[in-house]
Amino acid sequence: MPATAFLAVPELGRLLRLRRASAVELATDSLDRLERLGPSYDAVVRILREPALVEARERDAELRRGKDRGPLHGIPYGVKDLVAADATVVRRLRRAGAVLCAKLAMAELAGDWGRRAGRSPWDVSRWSGGSSSGSAVAVAAGMLPFTFGSETWGSIQYPAAFSGVTGLRPTFGRVSRHGAMTLSSTMDKLGPLARTAEDCGLVLAATAGSDPEDPTSLARRFTPPSGPPSRRYRIGLLRGALDGTQPEVGRNFEASLEVLAEVADLVPDLELPDYPYDAMAGIVLEAEAASAYEPALARAGALAGQAVEPRDYLRVIRMRRPAAVALDRLLSRVDALAAPTLPTVAWPADVPAERAYPEFPGGPSIAGAANLCGAPALFLPNGFGEAGLPTSLQLTGRSGSESLLLELGMHYQARTNFHRQRPPGL
């Protein structure tokens, strides 16, 4: 069997259909790497060897009979440990033929409140980002072709950027959350981390759609883009987007814009609407998390949410709709908003966030606004910075614009090879 650890989903699929590899061989390779590398990076909670091999044998038998479930048939994957074995997303991936191999580590209670899981494969003294820590590490270290994580505010964004992989935060409700632990009932979103934007689109296509067990799920199905950009696009830039970023982050972002300018006109000097998006998102997250998990948060020493007054939460709920309309109005002026995903490379693993790089706080960020209002974003590796650590490009769009974001991401990755880089020694 050819080396498969760092191949994208379509490449693995071709090997399977040409009989140059079997689903059992792919699963075994992933399971062996999870066992060998997972502990080194604090990335794995549970390896599902026996059930994975049973599923893989079934997928091979189906191919021999001429039954092909689609692009994910026989492809190994893992899920963040807050996703249950009978979650809707797991059931849909099983129906698509993917083979579940592992439950993956996450920051405690899906936040930066307690123990941080995940060490970066690029440098084990650095954090992999949270809270979908193990989900990103497993892809970055070649343990799995794709994984499923979650984001409430930054939990796909940070791991994708710090670990040098591609991540997709879908529109709120695009993927059913049934069977996934709730942190914030009105902000949680499930989404894939993978090697490429194309891979993320294939995974989203298999998992998106309505679910009677999740009343917030959206009925609209998702079809991934299949070709190059079909028209010329408009990409917006926030005024001051490079303020407070590490020099390498800024240089890599400007180089990314040159690639995107092949298919898009750049629209500079945009500004976020005049709403306190970050403060609003913080109040919603703290209040809803505290309501759902008061005893556990108390044990973790994270009782900030208890200080949120009911009147403050209700005030945010009243402001949320007009704030979302204003954000959508901004995003409607462009096809995507581009920015550095984060202002720095990965933080030292044992250093609090506020002390990691205080000299590089970053410029204006759309992350709080987008998460509060349920807008999607795509995170793409776009180079290397301090100490050879990955940097990342962020594309944010209107609700429901995943196909467009992925199309831009596929254009970018067809002209760069950062998504194909491997951590040292792997």
Structure description:
The protein has 426 residues and is an alpha/beta fold. An eleven-stranded mixed β-sheet has the order 1-3-2-6-8-7-12-13-11-9-10, with helices on both faces. Strands 4-5 form a two-stranded antiparallel ribbon. Strand 9, helix 8 (247-260) and strand 10 form a beta-alpha-beta unit. The longest helix has 23 residues, at 277-299. The two termini are 18 Å apart. The protein is built from 13 helices and 13 strands. Helices cover 38% and strands 17% of the residues. The protein is globular and about 60 Å long. It has helices at 9-17, 23-41, 49-64, 88-95, 133-140, 157-163, 197-207, 247-260, 277-299, 310-331, 353-356, 367-373, 402-414, and strands spanning 44-47, 76-80, 99-104, 119-120, 123-127, 146-151, 166-169, 189-194, 233-238, 264-270, 336-340, 377-384, 390-396.
